[in-house]
Design brief:
The chain is mostly helical. It has 10 helices and no strands. The longest helix has 24 residues.
């Protein structure tokens, strides 16, 4: 039987990785914009290391392998994040939303502004999940797929409109994306999204509490915490909280470097 304190380490690991990785990605994209090649090299290294971790631990059932695979999924995700935030991979439409665009035309323009990034994410998730079907340790693939679902949910909610949008982490060269943000209002989609993600967190929590092995417990606990953080980020969209302040240490000095 899994005790509550057994879940502490997986949760601490996810929170630490979430905080540090988000800050480092923001730092790379805000402070190294003029060194685009260097930023992409760093992101490429992240992808290689991440894929290597997932491959090397794919048939390992030990607890350490679960942690390593999870880290691998996050590193591959960071590769995509850096590629997007640097502007290297975004979409075919890189201009503000036309002022008269409504309905399907607005949705189409917003989609084309992100389409290349979305296709890249979907293809990577498909590849990782396909490989995971033949392994005993699919943690990294599951983590990446969940991040894709959560990111798509966030984007759709922001497109339809949310009460609070902290966009300081968005680099200046991507500010045209703000024209696709919806009005500041609480649509019924946001509470439903939070409830759905919360339900997914409970599903993994139940899996962790009833796990037969420590590796299975850690895997479910890691994914549960990932879902919990995603639910928290969605809640931040509904309340007046400037979540970007958590990563001010990564943004400090970025404006000066950009101007210089």
């Amino acid at each position: 039987m899994v005790e509550i304190f057994d879940l502490g380490l997986p949760f601490a690991v996810v929170v630490a990785l979430w905080f540090v990785s988000t800050g480092l990605v923001a730092m790379i994209n805000h402070r190294m914009r003029q060194s685009l090649g260097r930023a992409l090299i760093i992101s490429g290294i992240c992808a290689i290391v991440g894929l290597s971790l997932i491959a090397l631990t794919s048939n390992a059932a030990a607890t350490w392998a679960v942690y390593a695979s999870f880290l691998g999924g996050l590193l591959i995700w960071s590769w995509h994040e850096i590629s997007f935030l640097t502007g290297a991979v975004a979409g075919s439409h890189r201009a503000p939303c036309p002022a008269d665009a409504v309905g399907w035309r607005r949705f189409s323009a917003a989609t084309m502004a992100l389409i290349h990034h979305e296709i890249a994410l979907a293809m990577t998730a498909g590849l990782l999940l396909s490989l995971a079907a033949f392994t005993i340790n699919p943690t990294g693939a599951y983590a990446f797929a969940l991040l894709l679902v959560f990111r798509l949910s966030s984007k759709l909610n922001i497109y339809w409109g949310v009460p609070n949008m902290s966009d300081e982490l968005l680099p200046k060269h991507l500010e045209y994306l703000k024209s696709y943000f919806g009005p500041k209002r609480l649509s019924p989609i946001l509470p439903l999204s939070i409830a759905a993600i919360g339900g997914l967190a409970l599903y993994f929590a139940n899996g962790a509490s009833s796990a037969a092995t420590s590796a299975e417990m850690v895997q479910n606990a890691l994914l549960c915490c990932l879902c919990s953080l995603a639910a928290l980020e969605h809640i931040f969209l509904a309340i007046p909280f400037r979540d970007s302040a958590l990563w001010q240490w990564a943004l400090d000095g970025s404006a000066d470097r950009t101007e210089g």
